[in-house]
Amino acid sequence: MFHVKRTFEEYDIIVVGGGHAGVEAALASARLHKKTALVTLSKTSIARMSCNPSIGGLAKGHLVRELDVLGGEMGRAIDKTGIQFKLLNRSKGRAVWSPRAQADKRKYATYMQNILSSTHTIHILEEEAKEVIFSGNCVQGIILKNGEALYGKAVILTNGTFLQGLIHIGPIQIAAGRYGELPSLGLSDCLRAAGFVVKRLKTGTPPRITRRSIDFSRMIPQFGDSNPEPFSYVTTHFEPKNVPCYLTHTHENTHDILRRGLPRSPLYNGSIKGKGPRYCPSIEDKIVRFHDKSSHQLFLEPEWEGADQWYVNGFSSSLPIDIQCKALRTVPGLEGAEFIKPGYAIEYDYFPSYQLRHSLETKDVKGLYFAGQINGTSGYEEAAVQGFMAGVNAARALDNQEPIILSRSEAYIGVLIDDLITKETDEPYRMFTSLAEYRLILRADNADHRLWNIAQTIGIQSLEHCNTFKKSFDDREMIRTYFKHHSCPKELFSTLSLGHSDRYDHLIKKQILRQEHLPVLHEHLFPDFQTHSLDQAFIEILYEGYIQRQRQMVEKMRLLEDQQIPSTFCYDSIKSLSNEGREKLKKYRPETVGQASRIRGVSPSDIQVLLIYLR
Amino acid sequence: MEGYEETIAALSTPEGVGGLAVVRISGPNTLKILNPCLTRIPPEPFRATFTSFLNPKTGSFIDDVVVTFYKSPLSYTGEDLAEISCHGSRLIPSLILEVLFSQGARLAQPGEFTRRAFLHGKMDLTQVEAIADMIYAETENSLKSARMLLKGRLSEELEKIKATLIEAVSLLEISLDFIDQDIEPINSKDVQTYLQKGLHHINALVSSYRTGKILHDGARIPIIGKPNVGKSSLLNAILQEERVITSEIPGTTRDYIEEQVNYAGYLLRFFDTAGLRETEDFIEKLGVKKTQSLIREADLLLFMTEFPEEIPELIAPLKAQSHPTLLILNKRDKLSEEQVKNALSYASHDLPILAISALNETHIAELMDEILNLLKKHYTLNTESVMISHLRHQTHLKKAQKALLRGQKAILSGLPAEFIVEDIREALSAFDDITGKTTSVEILNHIFNQFCVGK
Fold this sequence. Notes:
The complex is a heterodimer. Chain A is of the alpha+beta class. Chain A has four domains: 9-203 and 348-453, FAD/NAD(P)-binding domain, CATH 3.50.50.60; 208-344, Elongation Factor Tu (Ef-tu), domain 3; 485-547, no CATH class; 563-614, Orthogonal Bundle (DNA polymerase, domain 1), CATH 1.10.150.570. In chain A, 35% of the residues lie in helices and 17% in strands. Chain A contains 20 helices and 20 strands. Chain A has helices at residues 20-31, 60-70, 74-81, 105-117, 187-193, 252-261, 283-289, 321-328, 380-398, 412-422, 447-458, 463-485, 490-495, 504-509, 518-525, 531-542, 544-562, 579-588, 593-597, 604-614, and strands spanning 10-16, 36-40, 54-56, 82-88, 98-103, 122-126, 129-135, 138-144, 149-157, 166-169, 172-175, 199-205, 208-210, 220-222, 245-249, 297-302, 309-313, 339-341, 344-350, 368-370. In chain A, strands 1, 2, 6, 7, 8, 9 and 20 form a seven-stranded mixed β-sheet that branches. Chain A has a six-stranded antiparallel β-sheet with strand order 14-15-16-17-13-18, with no helix packed on it. In chain A, strand 16 (297-302) and strand 17 form a beta hairpin. Chain B is α/β, with parallel strands linked by helices. Chain B is 46% helix and 16% strand. Chain B contains 15 helices and twelve strands. Chain B has a six-stranded mixed β-sheet with strand order 3-4-5-2-1-6. Chain B has a six-stranded mixed β-sheet with strand order 8-9-7-10-11-12, with helices on both faces. Chain B is flat, with a radius of gyration of 29 Å. The model of chain B is unreliable at 241-253 and 438-455 (pLDDT under 50). The A-B interface holds A 57-59, 88-89, 92-96, 279, 296-297, 432-434, 437, 439-440, 543, 546, 549-550, 553, 556, 559, 574-578, 581, 603-606, 608-609, 611-613, 615 and B 1-2, 4, 78-79, 116, 118-121, 124-125, 173, 175-182, 415-419, 421-422, 425-426, 429, 432, 435-441, 444.
């Protein structure tokens, strides 16, 4: 037992962890005028990017845009500190275009640290949380390593990979939260004792090597877009650098060396128990599972501008250092590679998310919230949006306000949280566009139009910006209506040198009027509106049929989504549920029939039965 | 809220006099209610036990019965259930039920046994529909197609198609979500191949609706021809009983008359139509109009004439129309051998000709066999292959078909992959509607309302 010293300071909200989830949680809480404590093992590692030096990417870019509209910090931070920006998937349709940026890890962390320290309602404590203090089924605060109790009305845990973190490099095992950082021990035992289910996951990271040891002349440089787009809707004066990454590849020699090291791989000799992400396999996993592939891509990415430390994207590994080194040195341009840090795998504790409500509050302990990697996700963006939502909802709960729960048809954030809670995953969860059934309406380019009203309800985003978003949305609707009722005048038509004239919406659907004509239309018809509004009206018309069908699907599902299930609902009293269905429903305790319908093992018959009983 | 605590009972066989009647009882108190009524308690489940059925309150004997007890969950409803086979009179089953009610059971509502089975997860929606079909099955073959559905063959086939479509979606999703990893770009031809394969099976199912409908509802066979050519006589000959008034005056059959015949396990529905000719008679005109809609919905046409010299000029127009047709030369008893032989020489593979005498009932068996041949030939009435016989299935499959055709068009017109995915996903959700994943309570109620008491 700790000797508990009383401290008199009491916080509204205590955030444990200073990663991407913790930072957004603390900022959201403080910006909603809550007295906030941020407990972190080390102030200098706040907002550190532990893995790849980039933000965004497929579907993750969508998350950052949504977070930005709602009032999160990540988008603004990367716009200020990014060193290369690219819109991915440009050859595909608009719904899957996704912004991505190379980050300057140091500047990014510094930016966030400055924002935090300039927010007066946040108190940063360099400490380790050892225990959670419960009182009945409510949280009361935490006990720190020094034995002091820190009292708070709500506690948000964002411990990332630190809970019982265990690094594997070949046969070597090191208790650590990140390379060179101490793990957080004890906290998960305390929660386990309180009845929480704790499981293990695994993730990994590639080696970092010195700049001088890389022969860039043997690699292909990869630049970002020459006309880059910012993440944030509120970023102005955006003129980022365009620092290249470099592309090279492994070959059979590399694979032979790796293969010889397999017996010493903790992944294959059974030392690692947690399951890793299939979408981000280690290099040894790639050569085993795709053994007929003779070459794999590797991207060399600078960790900051002018960095001496480079990230070898695609070479994540937990093989012994000598094998990693030898194998990497067979790669063109990396013959003289000098390691700063080896690649490693890390196992950590997480809490399967069916233990959470959609507000991210735990189902059993009032005031206790989980966000980020401890919920089984991977990625900075996934962590950040959860941290933000937990911060917002913890603050709202203290004000006796309903939690903000984004639906699957409103935002990727909604899809992410709903998936976490209703779908049991045994590998780290990463956002994909294919997980969003309403993908066509959840675009990265219309986050402002989708979420301005929710941003307003939350109250973190400035009123001025909310109004801008709203106006932009109203303008889009106005332009759309205009296009449906007006024909393109002859003069304008000849300016565009097109065939015969017609109503605008017809011309757009027949793809006679195309994206490249928008600047001329803008100038002639709507010079006072944002080009963004015109662009959005154009997309809505071009894909109208598909978009409408998707909106109809949303309506069809609404019946199920709106049907609440009381938290006291007794599934045992319904004999007609299938056994598997009943067990799953008891375990997941869904809040609506819509959520129940997405739980694996709950059959359509079970849903019908529920509907009959709830009617 | 419905109480499944209640134990329900009902007569499961048709009311009236028969060799046997079966009373069913289902629910948690089945044994508690039933056992006091029996002189021999079934020693174990799933075994038929011969026993007397008594009124436990008075001790009076009601009937000798065979009782089979099915223990939950291995019963039709998934609950404890017993079947009591008694003698098939109007009185005995009702006495048995009366006793069961006095012991605490209540009368089952229409379809309640099946509803409970569904709610206990014993069957999916297509299977529920199959039960409804079995109950209404008019002939052996429609029973067969219903049983097949019950076994889940349709569900199986749908799962197969679903798997194909999921393959196609996966290919596309890979191209959208994994561009940052070096995976070979997908070939839109592969997606097309999957879509084609899926469509092929869906098309087969959609067109099997006709076959399914023939097996399920019977083949619609109008008899057409000029007035007084002997259509009603033919119908009489087929029915082998005088049900249709025949007369020498043209136009007696003003509307049409339908008669159903169970022939070789198939249900044949003959329609005696009004004569095909222009007429001034208003009522007759209506009759003729109805004839036209009958022809439109026909599965097979019987075209009748009594004049062998008309045959050469009938061949071309009959071949030109889309229905399988059998040309019948009636009143062969009034014709010479030579005339008949000459007329039959015009017969061909796609337009067979038969000479009969409706009045004398000659060559009628030959005619019936030919009708069956033609039906089998045109509708591949293979009861072993999977087919659909429900409009609901047809509607959803057509929805899937439409979505996939749109997807194919989207590929050809170069729409981005996520739109093609959308179309395939829509097709997939149409499948869910058949197997019951997203059905609303309304559809359920509609299905359950089709059941009579006892099943």
